[in-house]
Amino acid sequence: MHMLEKLASFARSLWCDRRGNVALYWTVAAVPVIIAVGVAVDVSRAYFVRERLYFALDAAGLAVGSSQGTQAEMEAVMQAYFDANYPAEALGVPATPVLNLVESNGITTITVSGEASIGTTFMRVAGIDDITVGSSIEVTQETEGLELVLVLDVTGSMAGTKIAALRQASRDLIEILFGNETEKEFLKVGIVPYAATVNPGSIAPTLVPSEAANYDPTNEEAWKGCVLARSYPHDSLDSSVADGGAWQRYNWQPAKDNWWPPADNTESLGNDRHSPNLGCPNAIVPLTNQRAVLETTINALISWHRGGTFSNIGMVWGWRVISPEEPFTEALPYNTPKYDKAVILMTDGENLYYQLPKDDYHVPLSQNEAQYISDYAAYQRLDDGVLGTTSKTEARNILNARLEEVCDDMAAQGIIIYTVTFQLSNATTLGFYERCAANGGRHFDAPTADDLREDFQEIADELKNLRVSR
Predict the structure, then answer these.
(1) How confident is the model at residue 298 (pLDDT cuts 50, 70, 90)?
(2) What are the CA-CA distances from residue 449 to residues 161, 337, 422, 424, 446 (Å)?
(3) How far is it, in rounded angstroms, from Cα 201 to Cα 205?
(4) Which residues, at least 6 apart from 35, have a Cβ–Cβ distance to it below 8 Å?
(5) 145-469 belongs to CATH 3.40.718.10
(6) For helices 161-178 and 291-299, what crossing angle results, to 10°?
(7) 10 Å Cβ neighbour count for 75?
(8) pLDDT tens column, 349-362
(9) Could you tell me the pTM of the whole model?
(10) DSSP alpha helix (H) spans, 145-301
(11) Alpha helices, DSSP H only, in 413-448?
(12) At what angle do helices 22-65 and 2-16 cross, to 10 degrees?
């Protein structure tokens, strides 16, 4: 503006100059120069507005590309980021940006376009009152695949408010991952409830030598599908039947600490349940993209008393569910391009056998005089020495060591491990779960039910973002 004022003053001086025709020539020549400079000023201001518009559209497009949801939800994200990067006091008046989403074969092309106008100063003399500029950006959002297994502690210590909190936290996670959809093309989730052992479910009869005839998951007097741990090291490996041998039926024989028949495994009985399936939890759900199946399973989770806590057994079965090898066949091969594999291990307790004092039983001595100092579990009774010891303390050390072995082997296959400890205060035990998640995963400690929900939500958000690349 200062330069234009000088030019105008110079033109006026030339017009007043009476010394010759040069005054007229200079005046005529100065007019287009002045107009050109004025136009340049208006155009430069418009160019500045366009640059700001592009910056705001780019921020909005990247935000949409990092998010998931309905068209309306994505438009809300776009508008929020656009407004934050194009404040009302900025030069120019922007129109509402437009979001366009085109999906094809797992790839979403996101286009965000917009316009802004700015009033002119010098171009008004030519009848141009404002300049409108436009810009657009394009972001490619490619959905990465995810296979996820929830390995959930449903032992007796999880009874009551704890199991309710676990159900709620797991529902939250499913809701975040699935959004408004009932099934996802590039997402599969499995569930492995564990207590004294695990229940492979419908494939159980194929895992044992010849005892499948007794399999009946609806009958407490029959075999419901739980299996014992195989001998070390195959109790901790994803090895085949040919390499590691078959599994054996989990079958708690009638004894003074678990009398049957008749069998009664009603949850409300707690430690007074009696059944050959005592400590045998809900069946494993293999990888599936059906949200309803997962939510039905989560809502049906209950705590299973007696036996103890064997996180190593739960974890190795989580590995088997997410592994491309048998006994489950739903998982993709390791290192499949654009696919991640992750496991969430949740527990509220130490790895140990559940024990009662020899004289503290739930039935009269006359029913069965056998005196056991530990419950029956994946490694049978502690007194049987299957773990190589009859010491409860040493058994705990062995179980912890085997859990770490499983975690290390899973991490070596590229599986992301999250561990969540719930109301667990033992520093030594916390260390095991921290180390389990140390190789590229994360450990969370939840002192309260609200913390458990927040932890599961944070993991779900992280996993959801893993599925989106730009």
Answers:
(1) very high
(2) 8, 37, 8, 12, 7
(3) 9
(4) 122, 125
(5) no
(6) 170
(7) 19
(8) 899 998 765 555 55
(9) 0.77
(10) 161-178, 241-244, 291-299
(11) 427-436
(12) 160
Q: How far is CA 290 from CA 39, 174, 294, 295, in A?
A: 62, 11, 7, 9
Task: Please state, in angstroms and rounded to a whole number, the distance separating the CA atoms of residues 445 and 441.
Answer: 14
Average pLDDT, stretch 148-154? 98
Pairing of strands 145-153, 187-194: parallel
Distance between CA atoms of residues 279 and 266, nearest Å = 12
The whole-angstrom separation of Cα 435 and Cα 404 is: 7
Q: Where are the alpha helices (DSSP H) in 271-367?
A: 291-299, 311-322
Instruction: Give which of 154, 152, 156 is closest to 269, Cα–Cα.
Output: 156
pLDDT (mean) for 15-30: 52
Q: Does the structure show a pLDDT above 80 at 21?
A: no
Question: Residue 226 in contact with residue 201, Cβ under 8 Å?
Answer: no
Domains of the chain, by residue range, sit at 2-143, 145-469
Alpha helices in 179-300 (DSSP H): 241-244, 291-299
Name the nearest CA neighbour of 125 among 208, 38, 17. 38
Residue 387 amino acid letter: L
Q: How confident is the model at residue 259 (pLDDT cuts 50, 70, 90)?
A: confident
Phi/psi-derived region of residue 363, left when phi > 0, alpha when psi is between -120 and 50, beta in every other case:
beta
Among candidate residues 284, 229, 248, 283, the one with its CA nearest the CA of residue 399: 229
CA dihedral 121, 124, 125, 128 (to 10 degrees): 140
Paired tokens of 198: 């695990």
Q: Look up residue 225 and give its two tokens.
A: 């599908």
DSSP 200: -
Residue 247 has pLDDT above 50, yes or no: yes
Closest CA to 282 of 217, 229, 327, 326: 217
Provide the 10 A C-beta neighbour count for residue 339: 18
Q: What's the CA gap between 199 and 197, in Å, rounded? A: 7
The residue to which tokens 């569910």 are assigned: 321
DSSP run (H or E) holding 400: helix 392-412
Closest CA to 163 of 20, 347, 405: 347
Cα Rg, the chain, nearest whole Å:
35
The model's pLDDT over 445-454, given as tens digits with 9 standing for 90+, comes to 999 999 999 9
- Helix 161-178 and helix 449-466, axial crossing angle in degrees, nearest 10: 20
